[in-house]
Every structure is written in C-alpha cells, then in structure tokens.
Amino acid sequence: MSEPKLHIVDDDEAIRDALGWLFQSRNVPVAVWPSAEAFLADYAPDLAGCLLLDIRMDGMSGLELFDRLRDLGCRMPVLFLTGHGDVPKAVSALKKGARDFVEKPFNDNDLVDRVIEAMAFDADQREREAGQAGVAARLASLTQRERQVMDLVIAGKLNKVIADDLGISMRTVEVHRAHVFEKMGVKTAVELARILAAVG
Questions:
Q1: Whose CB among 74, 91, 105, 155 lies 3.0–4.6 Å from 69's, allowing a Cys bridge?
Q2: CA separation (Å) from 35 to 38, 39, 57?
Q3: Does 134 fall in a domain?
Q4: What is the pLDDT of residue 1?
Q5: What is the CATH number of the domain that holds 50?
Q6: Taking every pair of C-alpha atoms in the chain, what is the biggest distance, in angstroms?
C-alpha cells in the first residue's frame, strides 16, 4: 500500500498551491493534480488517504471523477470543495457515498480537521479489512472436520457432545479443537467467537 496522503484535485493553480501549503504546514502528506484526467492517469488501487476534489473543473468535473473512481472500486474517503451554487450537487454526492463537502470560502482549520478525520477513517477501514482478510485466510486453512468441530465449539457444546454429534472419539475432538485454536491463533473458545463475530 502506498503512503497515505491527501490527494488534491483542483484545476485552479492558486488554490492548489494554497491548499498544498496549508496541509503541509499541518504535517499532512499531500499530492496535487491539476485535473481529474491527470489524477486518473496516475490512479492506482492501493492509493490510500483521502481525496479533496473541486466540484467544478474544466474537462471532467469533480463529480464525474468521483463516479469514475467508484466504478474503479476506489473506497478512499472523498471531500468536495464547493461554491455556493453547487451545494445541491454536493448533497447528491453525499448520498452516493462521498464523505463530506466544504463550501468556499472555508475555514482553514475546519478543513484540515475534516481531512485528518477522513484519513483516520481510511486507515481504520484498511486495518479492519486487513484483519478480516487474515481471519479469512486462517479459516480457509481449516479442514472440513476442523470446521465442523469449530462450529460446535462456538455453539457452546462440550467435547463429549461434539464427539457424539460427529460420531468420533472425544480424543479426536480434543485434537481437532487444539488444531483449530492453533490455526486461528486463539487460546479460548471465547476469543475464537470474538474474532469470528468481528468479521461477521
């Protein structure tokens, strides 16, 4: 994954420069693009952080870029910079999944705070997804029998009951249970239930 950054896309050079300076002064890593097309040319699925898009630009608008990125599966939080007349468009973008919009002229500190919040949200989301992928990989490593034993352990059944249910010896249940705990990286049934609940 690339270093998380604020990606600013604005066709107004003065605004790009001012925003770049503002965020750098608050130690927020920044990358800037002069157009939606330029950003798309450099877009990679592992870009992380947050996008700040001007809603109105020459060529492809911020809204069109937002739609295109959603089609590409980009899930980075998106904030729009809007002029007064663009608020209805920004509201419709929120309904499609944009995170926020900020009306010009904006308060510098408020804008930086919102971006930092969006970047933290992106980092949390990626961390959660990485954790889920790890649990999914560990689940995939279980044999069919280990999976059956795990489901019954989580249902709160005792080893003797599991042995009867599956028609195997209690000793075999204990071996499978130990393998499940080892592969899933847990020490107790409660811990196992917790990580499985966390990934749904």
A1: 74
A2: 5, 6, 7
A3: no
A4: 58
A5: 3.40.50.2300
A6: 75
Answering whether pTM is above 0.90, one says no
Provide the residue range defining the domain that includes 170.
Answer: 141-198
One domain, residues 30 and 110:
yes
Map residue 124 onto helix, strand or coil: helix
94 shares a domain with 24: yes
Q: Which of 66-70, 86-90, 180-184 has the lowest mean pLDDT?
A: 86-90
Final residue before a domain boundary, out of 129, 150, 179: 129
Rounded CA separation 131/134 (Å):
5
- The pLDDT value given to residue 128: 81
Query: What's the token pair of residue 104?
Result: 């010009």
- Alpha-carbon distance 155 to 1, whole Å? 38
Confirm if 29 and 5 have CB atoms less than 8 A apart.
yes
d(CA 92, CA 198): 32
Distance, in Å, from the CA atom of 170 to the CA atom of 163, rounded to the nearest integer, reads: 5
For the chain, the domain total comes to: 2
